[in-house]
Task: structure prediction
Amino acid sequence: SAVVEHYWTIEPVEYTIQGLFTRTAIGVNGQWPIPGIEATLGDTLVIHVTNKLNEPTSLHSHGLFQNGTTFYDGATMVTECGIPPNASFTYRIPLQQTGTYWVHSHYREQSTDGLRTSLIIHDPHEPYSYDGEMVLTMEDWFRDSADKLLKQLMNPDPHIRFHPFVPYGIIGGECAGKKVIYFNPGRTYRLRLLNIGSTFEFHFSIAGHTLRLIELDGVMVKERMTHGVTLGVGQRASVLVTALNTTQSNYEFHADMYTDIVQMPRYNPLNYTGLVQYSAGARVKSDGCGKWLCVNDLDLEPLDAEPMLEPDTFITLDAYSGVFSDQTFRHSFNNITYMRPQVPTALTAVTAGDHAYDPLIYGRQTNAYVLRHMDVVQVTIANHDYYSHPFHLHGHVFQVVEVGSLRGRSSKLAQDPPVKRDTVVIRGGRYAILRFRADNPGVWLSHCHMLHREMGLAMTFIEAPELLPRVPDMLRENCIAQGISTTGNALGGFGPVNSEDEEYPTPYADQFEAKDPPSGWKIISYAINAKDEDFDE
Result:
């Protein structure tokens, strides 16, 4: 084991894409895109952060369980107050997992503005053999800042809200169309694929090559052949690719972007390509728009063969969207749009004493559920919107047990043992049943991993609050520096929060029902309305 130490000064950086436009990104040490992090199982990852922005910041290691280190999870006003301007904080994380992860800000939508990069944790005893590996991050990059995009998406006028916003693709840290990966004949490569963007999904394939899927979200799975891999925001996968035994041709790879949020017939999908090079100057073979057929998650099996869990606790989350009383368009679980408390939820949990198991102590707008240690929790998420949401859970992976239509048209059960991951895409008008064991004491956010999180599509699990670890001194100091209380309920008081003391927007009545796409709505019929029989076997 080793200490993998990084010193990050988080600061604005000017970035120009393909000579088209320049905008401010949030970079590290004067660089953007931000170089990735690599470590090995058993190492301790230490990131010393100095904040040179004019607002707070934080870092979340997406996919890491943070066993015993919930206060380094990085979710602002959940497990910390954020790092104030000109202040510092050190994240010290023992690495107890292997796989493909990423690091990003969890303060508002700084991740959309660029504070994001890959995190690879190597296994000294990899279950699959290969000759080399490559990391391919895929990210959408917008002309406008996250704040401007959020204002558009939260506008109550649908003509403004659904106005197209077209991003550019950045693949492997380079402008789309520029990325080259190099293959030697007969060698087998592990490609680590990550969607670290904010809104658009990516579909990856390589002309003339077959992919063998071996990892989803840090969970190794039994090898499965596929033509392509689809990644929602926050999702990761690893595939093995064996190079051809010839250098006569080079081949296009596709990292195509698409969304079902807004109507953009000319730009949906956006077909972005790169090059798999065997020989400089050789002719390039293409398969046109790429192969969009991929394996269904529910047909995959984890290598650890964990049996399907039997639930002790049942939670249903209905995801709706609509115009609220503050004249903004918001998202919600069970008609509650998430709003940050005045005291970080984890600090409330460790100072609440006998009230720690009372959800009211955490405030209505955190949508808090308190879990008993080691209970198996079944969460049914119903997506009543007509567009997709990638739902992510901090602190855990979950078993994906069932996916189906809210109107009863179709459903599909997982095999036993079921696939596990930490981010699942639920299409519009569909539901998913997820299960996990509450074996990781901490405070864990669960949320849509698009801009919808900032629009309220989030909730909180408080897991075994009596077993939470000690609060780091530096974390308390950063709270105090911002005038944020480190004790008390969600409002900084004592005892359960009276709902009359909270100020929050409420949804207008009679608008929360399952929605069909507006008349004339153009979406990608395969990608969005895929049926089981459309998937490869």
In short: Residues 513-537 have pLDDT under 50 and may be disordered. The first helix runs from residue 146 to 153. The chain has five helices and 33 strands. The first strand starts at residue 3 and ends at 17.
